[in-house]
Design goal:
single chain; alpha/beta; Molybdenum Cofactor Biosythetic Enzyme, Chain A; Molybdopterin biosynthesis moeA protein, domain 3; 7 helices; 19% helix; binds ligand LQZAQKY5; binds molybdate ion; molybdenum; metal ion binding; Molybdopterin molybdenumtransferase; molybdopterin molybdotransferase activity
Length: 408
């Protein structure tokens, strides 16, 4: 029978048991490194930029040459050359001199500011009139302003974002060490479950969970693996779970998680090794029969068979398990705030994760609860997120503000 844990207890048990999970690293080229977990500190071996650079198209000046100038009283400076992109200037500016410089060009020695071309007039006689004063540092990015040599710019454990990939490119990294992908095995159990290309006979049903779970756990840092449909038979299930546990880091088994005569998932997990089942039963709606197990260092989880329950539990607990095993502390979760479109009664004694459809209507964001039993598949498809209702709550009132977590 169940020994029901609260949601917080279950999440803590996941953290305590899987936070030290060890996963090897692999070298990957940076074009494949987005959303992978970095396994090294990135220390800059260079200053960026490596030279003092203009941020505008204009004329490089010694700022003091322009002090006090205006439209009425411009400064007249002698043009001694032109800066070419990618080339080191071959001359040095002296007082009263200037040179044309494009955006991104290197400042000649002594220049300490750039006047934008809009504030200059060039009469093609070798001189230019400057009608705007420039302070030292105007329109200049100095050597090392962006990244200074020796700085730690990205820490080990970071979930790399496109912005980080650009920074790695700037620093000259073509490949980096990242954590290997977490392998997540997926098994569906049930004598009545058939493949999706088959036609159901009698009370057979097509396998929904393998596919929805696959879609949820599929990320750039995981590799989902199908292990197929297994009948409600202890020995057959044990054989498949054992193989999956060897080959994967996490094994998800949907169905057979409850306490019926044919529900063997819990016994199978316990039979495979130490410590076995850690949690069987969570005070959550849907998902009460959820099983969290550990075999050696691997996670073996039993999800409820009802497709909507498996979906919700996977989103809440398996996402947390994956983050914990990979050491991801910051994974941004898209959320929106909205107001309830109607009352929603809830006093189940369990925390509830209610699928909702959240919609922008003019300047308001409205949350529509998606009603239906957790055995219904189509209801989830109508939702785009969920709201969390705490255990002691009596329900929600029309107009009440709530936070919606959007499905992946
Ligand atoms: N005596 C009790 N019975 C049940 C309880 C309880 O507390 N006491 N909890 C109920 C809840 S809540 C849920 S959720 C279910 C979970 O049961 P199982 O995990 O054992 O799931 P099954 O019995 O194997 O299947 C339930 C239902 O889902 C269909 N199913 C299963 N797998 C799939 C799949 N891959 N694709 C599509 N549909 C699937 C299956 O045909 C059943 O209709 O237990 C309650 N019972
Ligand atoms: O937890 Mo069950 O998942 O309520 O249907």
């Amino acid at each position: 029978m169940f020994d029901v844990k609260s949601v917080d207890e279950a999440l803590t048990i996941i953290e305590n048991n899987f936070k030290d999970y060890k996963l090897d690293y692999e070298l990957t080229s940076i074009d494949e490194a987005n959303e992978r977990i970095l396994c090294q500190d990135i220390i800059s071996e260079e200053d960026i930029p490596s030279f003092n650079r203009s941020t505008v198209d204009g004329y490089a000046v010694i700022a003091s040459d322009t002090f006090g100038v205006s439209d009425a009283i411009p400064a007249q400076l002698n043009i001694i050359g032109e800066i070419k992109m990618g080339e080191k200037p071959s001359f040095v500016l002296k007082q009263g001199e200037t040179c044309y410089i494009p955006t991104g060009g290197e400042l000649p020695s002594n220049a300490d500011g750039i006047v934008m071309i809009e504030y200059t007039e060039n009469f093609d006689d070798g001189d230019v009139f400057i009608s705007k004063a420039c302070s030292p540092g105007n329109n200049v990015v100095y050597k090392g302003d962006d990244v200074v040599i020796g700085a730690k710019v990205i820490g080990s454990g970071t979930l790399l974002k496109p912005q980080d990939i650009g920074l790695l490119a700037a620093l000259g990294y073509s490949e980096v060490k990242v954590k290997k992908k977490l392998r997540v095995g997926i098994i569906s159990t049930g004598d009545e479950i058939i493949g999706i290309s088959e036609k159901p006979i009698g009370s057979q049903v097509r396998d929904v969970n393998s596919y929805s779970l696959y879609a949820i756990v599929q990320t750039s840092f995981t590799t989902p693996v199908f292990y197929g449909i297994v009948p409600d038979d202890y020995n057959t299930l044990k054989e498949v779970v054992e193989k999956a546990t060897v080959e994967c880091d996490i094994v998800l088994i949907s169905g057979g998680s409850s306490v019926g005569q044919k529900d063997v998932t819990s016994d199978v997990i316990d039979s495979l090794g130490y410590p076995g089942v850690l949690v069987h039963g969570i005070a959550v709606k849907p998902g009460k029969p959820t099983i969290i197990g550990k075999i050696g260092e691997k996670a073996v989880v039993g999800l409820p068979g009802h497709p909507a329950s498996a979906f919700v539990v996977c989103n809440i607990f398996i996402t947390h398990l994956i983050n914990t095993m990979l050491g991801i502390s910051k994974r941004s979760i898209p959320k929106v705030n909205g107001e309830m479109a109607s009352n929603y009664p809830s006093n189940t004694g369990r925390e509830e994760y209610l699928p909702v459809r959240v919609e922008k209507e003019h300047d308001r964001t409205i949350i529509y609860p998606v009603y239906g039993k957790s055995s219904l598949i189509s209801i989830l498809s109508k939702s785009n997120g969920y709201i969390h209702i705490s255990r002691g709550s009596e329900g929600l009132n029309k107009g009440q503000l709530k936070e919606v977590v959007l499905w992946k």
